[in-house]
Specification:
mainly beta, 133 residues, two-stranded antiparallel sheet, disordered N terminus, three-stranded mixed sheet, rod-shaped
Length: 133
């Protein structure tokens, strides 16, 4: 197997974004990504296209930029080592929150008259818990 690595180079990695909504990053989830790749047939000379499902176990709190690597899952060829496939976590925009590091930021519009005397703002968390400020 090390002789193959010395003889043939590995194809460059294939990188794809994995856009996740805030709720999935908050609680974690399982993503199944279908890929189509070229696979060498048993004769070693011809190939065919086959689908494969890659499973990503998204951990709670993963940050944008987290990289998930599936080694040698790219196209197979007679004279190359299949490329690694890398998924890169990206935050999907959320209508209420922006994530900055480990913090969630929420912007509330408060009329000046209420800001001066105080008021109650109800905030809906991503986990369906409400808080009053």
């Amino acid at each position: 197997s090390s002789g193959i690595n010395a003889e043939y180079g590995q194809d460059p990695p294939i990188e794809r974004d994995l856009a996740l909504p805030l709720e999935e990053i908050y609680s974690g989830c399982i993503k199944k990504m279908k890929i189509s790749r070229r696979v060498m047939n048993d004769d070693g000379h011809t190939s065919s296209i086959r689908d494969k499902i890659l499973t990503i176990n998204v951990k709670k709190g993963w940050s944008s930029g987290t990289r998930i690597t599936f080694q040698k899952e790219g196209d197979q060829g007679p004279n190359s080592i299949p490329a690694d496939i890398i998924f890169i976590v990206k935050d999907k925009d959320h209508p209420l929150y922006k994530r900055k590091g480990s913090d969630l930021h929420f912007v509330a519009t408060v009329p000046l008259s209420k800001a001066l005397i105080g008021c109650v703002i109800e905030v809906q968390y991503t986990c369906s818990v409400r808080s009053v400020w």
